[in-house]
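ok new one. same drill as before - structure tokens go in, u give me an amino acid for every spot. 405 of them this time. try not to just spam alanines like last time pls lmao
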């Protein structure tokens, strides 16, 4: 039999560590940690994990930090990516994105919601487990993963495929506004290339303008975007043109190539092959003899390791009655005496690899809110840190109870 979960004590401890979580989150925010430049924030997290008493802390060859609590047979993982996007136009910020800001309720700074707040709550959930002796027939793995903003899921491809780590399930601590999230649309990064022939701009009829050839393709892509798949839970597939490139000998010449990037969000039932084929079938694409392809990613991590992959990030969801949903609902009800909201992410997470590629169930519960991600004046809520720390400490025992039913 699993130990009884002392819900009131867990919540009491989480409130007790509110100031420490706030301080730790601000420590992480103060360290710029864009994708492929996470070394210093990883070392900060390592120091904090060791301070609160994790049983083992290691950094893998890609640079992900892995902290372990317990030695039981059931491996449960919780994940936060600890890289951030850049700050964008600093004029849009009302405070320094790295010095951050703080009042009685909120913490501001780049990474506050997306997604270093999740790391702060996980580390102090580990301390709560240690303080209250909640170790049992499980091993808790807390991961701080790299390069997610550049290539979501790549870190967990490496962890699963190269380190041979396969948890029974993973909690993603991406921002959920302290709700339970059970899925997301997938995505892929597509490129369309059109070739032309340059000539002097004074006599454009001598050449073949690649930008003009791209024009009808853009119109048809816009039309296609309104006719994509739909799912009752995950919603519609979407398509947007996100970048445009060209080559030309000069501003006084006809462009001899043009290309666009497409951000394609895949709903349930859509495939990467189908997404490419529907673009290749467009009349303007065929008329221009355009080449439609998927991007690849091969940027080195901060350790120098290169782990190339194609830019396809599969759709995933767990069903409403899945054991992970039941587990988190049990913990939530026990702690907060009310029913949780169960929903989905709009954006993409490391779940694309963990469940989308490898079939390991993923469930979401995290501090912060989706609209804060990548926005100026990013913030999170101190009470969210407390709520999530309590949940993360209670979930392993709740899972063992569900397994015994």
């Amino acid at each position: 039999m699993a130990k009884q979960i002392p819900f009131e004590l867990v919540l009491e401890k989480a409130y007790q560590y509110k100031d420490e979580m706030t301080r730790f989150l601000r420590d992480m925010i103060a360290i710029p940690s864009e994708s492929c430049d996470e070394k210093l924030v990883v070392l900060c997290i390592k120091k904090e994990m060791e301070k609160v008493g994790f049983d083992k802390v290691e950094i893998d060859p890609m640079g992900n930090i892995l902290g372990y609590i317990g030695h039981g047979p059931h491996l449960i993982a919780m994940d936060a990516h600890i890289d951030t996007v850049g700050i964008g136009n600093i004029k849009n910020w009302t405070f320094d994105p790295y010095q951050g800001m703080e009042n009685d309720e909120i913490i501001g700074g780049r990474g506050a919601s997306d997604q270093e707040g999740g790391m702060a709550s996980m580390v102090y959930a580990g301390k709560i487990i240690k303080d209250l002796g909640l170790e049992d027939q499980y091993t808790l793995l807390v991961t701080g993963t790299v390069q997610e903003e550049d290539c979501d899921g790549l870190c967990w491809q490496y962890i699963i495929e190269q380190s041979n780590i396969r948890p029974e399930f993973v909690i993603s601590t991406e921002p959920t506004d302290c709700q339970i999230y059970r899925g997301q649309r997938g995505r892929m990064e597509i490129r369309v290339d059109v070739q032309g022939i340059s000539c002097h701009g004074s006599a454009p009829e001598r050449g073949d303008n690649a930008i003009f050839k791209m024009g009808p393709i853009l119109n048809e892509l816009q039309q296609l975007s309104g006719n994509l798949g739909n799912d009752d839970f995950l919603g519609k597939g979407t398509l947007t043109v996100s970048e445009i490139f060209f080559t030309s000998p000069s501003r006084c010449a006809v462009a001899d190539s043009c290309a666009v990037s497409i951000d394609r969000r895949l709903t349930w039932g859509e495939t990467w092959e189908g997404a490419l084929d529907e673009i290749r079938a467009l009349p303007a694409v065929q008329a221009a003899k355009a080449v439609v392809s998927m991007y690849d990613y091969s940027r080195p991590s901060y350790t120098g390791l290169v782990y190339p992959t194609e830019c396809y990030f599969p759709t995933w969801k767990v069903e409403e009655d899945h054991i992970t949903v039941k587990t988190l609902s049990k913990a939530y009800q026990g702690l907060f005496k009310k029913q949780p909201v169960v929903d989905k992410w709009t954006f993409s997470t490391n779940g694309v690899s963990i469940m989308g590629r490898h079939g390991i169930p993923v469930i979401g519960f995290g501090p912060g809110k989706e609209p804060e991600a990548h926005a100026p004046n990013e913030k999170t809520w101190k009470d969210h840190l407390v709520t999530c720390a309590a949940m993360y400490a209670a979930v392993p025992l709740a899972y063992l109870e569900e397994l015994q039913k």
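DSSP finds eleven helices and 22 strands in the chain. and btw The mean pLDDT is 98.
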